[in-house]
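pipeline/complex-builder :: batch 7 item 3
reading input block
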Amino acid sequence: MTWVLATALLVAAAPFVLWPLVVRRPEPGTDGEPPP
Amino acid sequence: MLLAELGSAFLLASLVLVSVSAVAGLLAGRRGDVPLAGVARRAFYTAALGLAGASAALLAALLGRDFSVAYVFEHTDRALSAPLTAAAFYGGQEGSLLYWSLLLALMGSVSIGAGALTSVRTTAYATAVLGGIVAFFLVVMVFVASPFALLPTTPSDGLGLNPLLRDGGMLIHPPFLLAGYSAFAVPFAFAIAALVAGRDDAAWVAHTRRYALVAWGLQSVGLVLGMWWAYHVLGWGGYWGWDPVENAALMPWLATTAYIHSAQVQERRGTLRAWNFGLVIAAFLLTALGTFLVRSGVLPSVHSFAVSPLGPWFFGFLVAAVALSGGVLAWRSERLRSSLAVEPGASREGAFLLQNVLLVALTAAVLWGTLLPLVSGMTGRELVVGAPYYERAGTPLMVALLALLAVGPLLPWRRVRDGWLRLLRWPLAAAAAVLLALLAAGVRQPGALVALPLVAAGLATCAAEYGRGAALARRLDGAWPLAAWRVAARNRRRYGAYLAHAGMLAVAAGLIGSHAWQQTRQVVLRPGQSVQVGSHTLTYEGIASRSASDHSALVARVRLGDEVLEPTRLTYPSLGGQAVTQPAIRSTPLDDVYVVLAGADAGGAALTVYVNPLVTWIWVGGALLVAGVLLGNLVRPVAEGERAPSGLGAPVAAR
């Protein structure tokens, strides 16, 4: 039961968490730092 | 049952999310990958929500008296009031781990949200560190000490909360202290992140310092409330017992006190970078050490949780944190070397440096006293030190710190100019006046004769600085109150610091007064008989019995002037007859009369009476200390160059 509920919670959270990868911007490092 | 399943599911999901956050944060930091850093942050925020869900489930189980949950059974019963039942959330081992994780996740979310506006990459590393720390707590809660573990059968009632915890103090002291403990992880995470990312510039000092101040403020409130609670509940007439757990809470506070001062040297002069990183990291490692000591049961303490299987886990966490911090500091040591040296001799930075050395020495003395039983136990002969050790080691350091509080704020940056000694005239005059007054009053204790004049000198320094600000306001255009407000608002970090200094000095006066002049008498009195303690006469009038749902109470009536004090002794039949005392306290700014009922029978009442001078100053000083820091620092980030108005014509004062 715990595992089922935890999986459901993770599935519900996934769109919010992964959204930045979906709308991925091409260039890294927007904060004035050069990429390492 | 369903609540427990739901709570466990929230914990499990949160563990997955913070693990994602830690790994994604590390990768995003290494690659400078902005979207991945966003994933790391969002996973962390969502884990915080998950922990809030788990906390809500535990609270619902507690308030719903769901005794199928082992934690609810072990820490509450049906007779417990609703507020204390809710407070049982953090009253036991497993629940306090959940509370700690929740606070860290919430504070971490705020800090990484704000940090991402300054540097995505550095914040990604900080997210990884915070994610790693929260993941550790979640692993412990999911696999070793779950707050949602179920009992095979559901009992009709619970075991109840420890009687000592059945007090209003339970609602305020632990939440603040645990919040302080958890908050030290935030500046630590940003310090490690700044080191890894190679960002040790002013913006990151300001960011780290802000969260160090939050942790320090919470810990200050927690410590003062802890002293207040111990004083009002434990019935031994004191407020600090040098218990290992008290020491564990004090040490990170001392290290952070040093940091919030030395960070100013870095802001102003660009020096002490490695030292400052070291202090922030040390504060966190001291909290990790404290957590290990409290939760493993390796040291005997009134606060300890029972000996638990968590000791090796927390020891592993401590070792990992030490290894990570030491490794990162060693890796970046070359980069942190500053080209500028701290000016020798009398200067503001010299005073800060000396203050830091004194605070670190004090921390080391407390650490040694705390760990001695553990270290000596390894050699087969366990040694324990008590209050005399701490007082001998700490008093000279405290006296030197008091002297610095009087002189340090008057010193200019870089080096003193001609005539600076004139600035000391007010503190010296105040010290001389108090010394003469004490001698005239017949005081002969050397400690009080040295320390109290220094307290007066420090207060005079604060007053003189406020006076100079007020004088400046008089010279400005417009109405004086408005001008004074403008001066204060423009320099609020500085004036907030003086308020905090005044608070610290009041605390010091309370500590000195209550140590130097405490008087105690133990007596057995029949009704109508009196006892004289100091200048107070107390008359025992009689005793009464009362009963409540979960305890019976023996209440003595003791007359003190026009007032009646009622020291009480409570007995809990459901807990095997366990008894606790409730002292009766009459407080004035000059002294407290503190009466404890040790027992009573037909022959009379056994009373212990303490007269504790100046204790109220500790509580008032603690409030001023925190208010000063809040007013001065937490309202908004302080702009570079916010310093004394040029018209002061005096050295730039403390900020």
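note: The interface with chain B takes residues 1-6, 8-10, 13, 16-21, 23-25, 27-36 of chain A (CB under 8 Å).
queue -> next item
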